[in-house]
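Listing S7. Sequence submitted for prediction.
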Amino acid sequence: MEVRVSAVAKTWGLETGEAVHALRSFDHVFPSRGFTCLLGPSGCGKSTLLQMIAGLTAFTSGKIEIAEPETGERAALGANSVMVWQNFNLFPWLNVIDNIAFGLKMSGMDRTERHSRAQEYIDFVGLRGFEAKLPRQLSGGMRQRVGLARALIKDPDILLMDEPFGALDAQTKLIMQEEVQRLYLQTKKTVIFVTHAIDESILLADEVVVMTARPGRVKATVPIGLARPRSMEDVNSTAFGSLFDKIYHLIKEEVEKAVLTEMAAP
């Protein structure tokens, strides 16, 4: 499914008269079955945009459409998407298999069938043998795998990922970046991934959308074009370095603007 965002704006605080313009005139078409990273300074509206696409937050003006480009079929916001958050949002009293199968339980699927489905995704994300473990018995990376499996079991067309590895240590993050690449190549979902890390965006994305300081809008779209799968071994390549340099200079200016705005605030 393709996500078409047209002239979208979001202003918080209109009710109180203390308006904060999070997004203004944001335009972009997120390609069907493509992997897009959103990169921008803190407070530029990246997470807000994701929540609007998910149908969790209303936008102030503009238009967001979800459509199948080949057939023109439309979908309501949130109907064909699922969010993966930075905090794992697992139920601490449920074991791995029941956390993953929770959405199926809520839809009325019987226990035998939903556990059978959940087992497929447990195997898919490499957690066989941990079905009966509680979240507190898992590492951070394993908990994030549970979160991914819980999202994937719903078979969404669109995965919205809001800094899903932000809470992980550096080594676990590298492993999860490779894991997400593998899952993407196998499932070919439309993925929109929020990150603050330039190297992560280059490792994962087909395109990187660089956003301006608040109010956020598209400053530049950088196609990546590197062969997949990618790993940290690619970081030292000339092509990777060239992309890093380009994106760094695009984002550096916006981060500096954001810092100056914060310093000037009363």
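Caption to Listing S7: primary sequence and predicted structure tokens for the chain studied. Strands lie at 2-12, 20-30, 35-39, 61-67, 74-75, 81-84, 158-162, 190-195, 207-211, 218-223. Residues 66 and 76 are 7 Å apart (CA to CA).
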